[in-house]
Fold this protein.
Amino acid sequence: MDTILTINNLTKKFGYLTAVKDLSFTINKGNVYGILGPNGSGKSTTLGIVLNVVNKTSGDFSWFDGNTTTHDALKKVGAIIERPNFYPYMSAYQNLKLVCKIKGVDYSKIDEKLELVNLLDRKDSKFQTYSLGMKQRLAIASALLNDPEILILDEPTNGLDPQGIHQIRTLIKQIASNGTTILLASHLLDEVEKVCSHVVVLRKGEKLYSGRVDEMISSHGFFELKAEKQSELIQALEADANFGIVKTEGELITAFLNEPMDASAFNKLMFEKGITLSHLVKRKESLEEQFLKLTDNN
Amino acid sequence: MLRLINLELQKLLLSKVNKVLIFISFILPFTVLILSSIKINFFGFFTLELGELGIFNFPIIWHITTFFASYFKFFFAIVVVSMIGNEYSNKTIKQNLIDGLSKKEFILSKFYTIIFFSLVSTLLIGVASFLIGLYYSSYTEVSIIFREVEYLLAYFVKLVGFFSLCLFFAMLLKRSAFALAFLFILYIFEWLIFWGSYEAFGTADMAWKVKNFLPLESMYKLIDQPFQRIIITKYPDKMDLAYDYAVHWYEIAIVLGWTALFIFLSYRLLKNRDL
């Protein structure tokens, strides 16, 4: 698999504060990565370092095969950090033209990308007249101008209204489906859960987890059950080695699995024992629960 | 290099404020020059014709036009300072770097633009002086016309040096207004050093020598004031007013030294700064 970004033992100190501590991970082509972490966990600092705007204290990082200078590599990268930053007195078209000049991209791309983010009819309006949602979409258009190998987004839905959030997410999914590698920093878990395949979890600048999203949710899930013969059901569950903790809340029984088992097999098993279930749902713990577990434990 | 100038020109020329300031700093001295060269009739009482004073004679015209035109550099200084200040306040400097401009290229694009505008200004003043001189001058031999053309070089170096200083202050302080205020503080500071060295060495002569090395004074000193010289040309017997008004190579070298230092320091500042 092609490597896009390698980070080795990266550390950044702001005076006494260590914003990023000995961080290492690798970004491979074709995946959608999420960097998760509470506010102030070093997400933006890490992105700032690899994007050449923040100086590292120690460690190193390399783009692509490691033979390109950072600013040349950035021409093959599309990135938006925090707020969309453009020249307020220029129109959308002129702003993108400037980016084309920096990246060495043909001007014909401008209309194509404005079309993609649905801003083509406003292309001659000045940037300062745009709403926040439009600004953010323009920023995405700008990041896509060079058809980047990787798109880096830092809190892309921050401060947007529900409609705006929905538009941006649809856009991200659309871009991901075209095979573009995406690195998305966010503290919004459902956002990461919905679009990312891999995740890096940070807390206070330290890496807590990195790997696939579905592996992070490592448990085998649990059953939510209801039955007429409740006490018999509980007995049967406690006797079965496949189940760990069994919790009862009113009529609802929650049984956590030790071994993988699908719902139909379980249903069959209970039926054979003469227990008929009136309610059976198999669920997995959400990323949110896993994330809170990870960030609280240490 | 053309790409970097092109980049910066787009940033500058699409903004109305900058366009007006650039227009003022280049066209105004030009206009003043032309106006002062025409004959003005004050309602039949008397006519004012500066050309009659002999100030448009070659070679003194080079000295006079460059001296007065250099005062208009303050308008472009505002442009230089705001082109950095705006990049910081709009955070576009961050976006430029993320988009793949290197920090070195960022500073160079500003510096090349400074050189570009200084060159344009020098050419405008040069052509205007040349034409007005041809019209008024009593001497039109080629050797006399081009005798003190080094004032144009001094003018160019002076502009580049001054704008580089503005660039450095703007990079240092990130705010346009602070940077302009700092220019004034530097002016006072240079007089303080003058006073300090007067106390230390005991003679004004030595104190001047020290001050001549400081940024603002060294730039001012490139083109000395021409008033005494006008008087001397008018009344050749007043030789006690004689002074050294020539452009010296070491004066140019000092200013070029400062320019290099300011650009280098601007780069170092940006390189070590977290944006």
Remarks:
- The interface with chain A takes residues 3, 6-7, 10-11, 14-16, 86, 90-92, 94-103, 105, 271-275 of chain B (CB under 8 Å).
- The mean pLDDT of chain B is 87.
